[in-house]
Amino acid sequence: MKGVPVTEVDSVDRPQLHLRQVTDGRHFVQLIYSGEDELRDCEYVTHAPTVHAFLDTFRHDMEAVRHGGGGDAGARNVTVRVLGDDEALPDDLAAWLDYPRLREACEENHNQIRRLLDGHQRGEESAKHELERRKRSLQDALMAPGTKWCGKHHRADTYSSLGAFSHTDRCCRRHDQCKMAIPSFATKFGLFNHRPFTISYCGCDKRFRTCLKVAGNGPANLVGKLFFNVVQTKCFVLKPKKVCLKTSWWGKCIKWQVKKQAHLRDNTPY
């Protein structure tokens, strides 16, 4: 594919967030902006399989649009603009292709999160409130329309209550029951989660992905793309790790215990 594929997706039912994805065939940049164009979360990678997966998805979506909006294209409004060889790139798009600047912005965003976490651990109320604000604004904006379970905080009054897209909602409801998960900005199974989203056990995410694929409709595909390609690109597996519980006065371990240690893995893109 020639040129530079670029996509921008607004949050599902209100323009609070914008997802921007750009690649030049080597770099892949994924950024989440607020409605005020404030960078909230990002990922900058040079991992070839990630780049290829994005290009495959991009081609698939373009084919769906060309043939009348099949697949999940019908679940949202799609605007396509193809620039000619002699047509100048709009100023707002030109900034997207400055990869050094995008990478610097992404690294600074992660540094801000680390500083806030350090402040939170020191008991600074301002840092605590800012972390909660960032987490809440992202989570609230990612509730899929027509569902009661597909978001951070479900809207269902009872367990049996489902939204209009009931098959998709059942998939989300089952995933919500996953017992093994690491909340945002928390440590569990020996792993700290610095993201504003929960990280789940890979087995739970795999079942969730399969359920959405079986549903196979527009809402399910939209939820799948939002979850696996944006919110939860990582999952974790558990492996046994031998840790020392007690040492002698000269430093030799005299009591051991085997504990489960979480290790991050890449989720399969949707």
Question: How is this structure best summarized?
Answer:
This protein is of the alpha+beta class and 270 residues long.
Task: Set down the secondary structure blueprint.
Elements: E1 6-10, E2 17-23, E3 28-34, E4 39-45, H1 48-66, H2 91-94, H3 99-121, H4 125-141, H5 166-176, E5 181-182, E6 186-188, E7 191-193, E8 199-200, H6 202-215, H7 218-231, E9 234-247, E10 253-266
Antiparallel strand pairs: 1-2, 2-3, 3-4, 5-8, 6-7, 9-10
Major beta sheet, specifics? 4 strands, antiparallel
Work out the helicity level: 25-40%
Task: List low-confidence stretches.
Answer: 70-76
Number of strands: 10
The secondary-structure class comes to alpha+beta
β-sheet strand percentage: 15-25%
Strand order of the largest sheet: 1-2-3-4
Distance between the termini: 20 Å
Number of discrete helical segments: 7
Whole-angstrom Rg: 21 Å
The residue-averaged pLDDT reads: 79
**What is the succession of H and E elements?**
EEEEHHHHHEEEEHHEE
Query: Per the principal axes of the C-alpha atoms, what is the gross shape?
Result: globular
Domains, number? 2
